[in-house]
Amino acid sequence: MRVIGATARRFFAVRPFISIGVKSAFASLSIIFESPGALSSGGASLAGERFRACREPTEVRLEAKHFIDYRYKMDFADVALFRSIVTAGSLSAAAREMGTTPMLVSRRLAALEAELGARLFHRTTRSLSLTPEGEAFLPHAAALIAARDSAFESVSSAGSGLSGVLKVTAPNVIGHAVIVPVVAGLIADNPALRVNLVLSDDRVDIASMGLDVAIRVAPMKPSDMIATRLADNPYILCASPAYIARFGEPATLGDLVSHPCIKLHAMETWPFVRGGELEQIRIAGPLSASTVDAVRAACLAGVGVAMMTYWDVYEQIERGELKRIVLADAAPVELGIWAVFLTRAQMPVRVRAFIDALRKRLLAGTLP
Fold first, then answer.
1. Which of 69, 71, 205, 263 is deepest in the core (most CB within 10 A)?
2. Both ends of the chain: CA-CA distance in Å?
3. For 83-149, where are the E strands, in sequence order?
4. How far is the C-alpha of 109 from the C-alpha of 113, rounded, in Å?
5. Quick check: 289 and 307 in contact, CB under 8 A?
6. Is residue 342 predicted with pLDDT exceeding 80?
7. What is the pLDDT of residues 66-83, one digit of tens each?
8. Mean pLDDT (whole number) for 195-206
9. Angle between helical axes of 91-98 and 102-116 (0-180°, round to 10)
10. pTM of the complete model
11. Which of 150-154, 264-268, 287-291 has the lowest average pLDDT?
């Protein structure tokens, strides 16, 4: 007897007893139905007198090939399609990207929803949004695709280098200064590799964007999410030599608050550690900006003192274009550079190679 799809879910929903045995080299599934009278009285449990009270059971046996066909029928292409719809934002946009029709995309999505027994999207003529079930399935869909890619890469790319599409997001400055040179080197050594790099100072949702890894600069702990620390990246104070020649260099936190400072919109206060305690210092100045690039440019132009991370300004410090300021009574908070993933399981070979290359590049940098 072969049972699949929604029928299978109704079939298993009334099971009073399921046992799995081994027959020769194949596993078989035994399903025992109770008589109608037993079912109408509320059914029986798996143990004790209630099981022995089952009357006239009928045994139906699913051989291994039928069980596997039922249990593992889901199509990877439909799972990938689901993730593409989330990324594209609509059925029609996903259809255009895949070179097919919205009708076919809709049918395949409906087949996946029937297989899962859950609606994945709220759909109207004007909007598309994930249901709670869709949000719950999204990271698993990404993990399934990653596991499939990893399995194929493990046998197909061993002698031919990295392949497939590496999808990464990172902040703008570290993306330009560090990530781009790293992926350029990987591409040069692996002609079959393609890279999709999303640079943004906003926190990107890697699940909805279908990305492999996010590089983030933050005071995270390993338990905050699935992440690995790649390198230190402390906040530092800096100013241009021209500014210091004109206004002097602050020596303490008290001095700092009297200097014109360049504020990043996302940082309402500047974090310091003094005497083992965290202190958030409010600063003021003639300029605030929405991006780290703009803050750095203003600092180079002598507008004021800036707080940025080491990897945002390490080149300018090495060239003498900016000078690091060290206070006597406090130190800026330490940050780290992290690689964030949806899952550690079955990570594609290209992602591991990228992380290894990025870590090597970061650790080669010298923190002053």
1. 263
2. 71
3. 121-123, 128-130
4. 6
5. no
6. no
7. 444 545 566 777 887 888
8. 86
9. 110
10. 0.55
11. 150-154
Predicted pLDDT at 46: 40
How far from 164 is each of 83, 114, 208, 341, CA to CA, in Å? 17, 30, 19, 18
User: Which residue in this structure is represented by tokens 């709220």?
Assistant: 122
- Beta strands, E only, 275-325: 277-281, 287-289, 305-309, 323-325
Report how far residue 285's alpha carbon sits from residue 283's, in angstroms, rounded to the nearest whole number.
Answer: 7
In the chain, beta strands by DSSP E: 17-23, 26-33, 58-62, 121-123, 128-130, 164-170, 193-199, 213-218, 227-232, 235-239, 261-264, 270-274, 277-281, 287-289, 305-309, 323-325, 331-332, 336-340
Instruction: Please answer whether residues 169 and 205 qualify as being in contact, where contact means their C-beta atoms are separated by less than 8 angstroms.
Output: no
What phi-psi label fits residue 48: left (phi over 0), alpha (psi between -120 and 50 degrees) or beta?
left
Mean pLDDT rounded to a whole number for the chain: 77
Q: What angle do CA 92, 97, 103 make, to 5 degrees?
A: 35
Of 251 and 118, which is predicted with more confidence? 251
pLDDT mean over 253-265: 94
Q: How many C-beta neighbours within 10 Å does residue 269 have? A: 11
pLDDT tens across 223-246, in order? Answer: 445 788 898 888 999 999 999 999
Please say whether the beta carbons of 365 and 314 come within 8 A. yes
66: Cβ–Cβ under 8 A, 6 or more apart, which residues? 1, 2, 3
Residue 224 gets which letter from DSSP?
Answer: G
DSSP letters along 172-221, please? HHHIIIIIHHHHHHHHHH-TTEEEEEEE-SS---HHHHT-SEEEEEE---
**How does DSSP classify residue 34?**
P
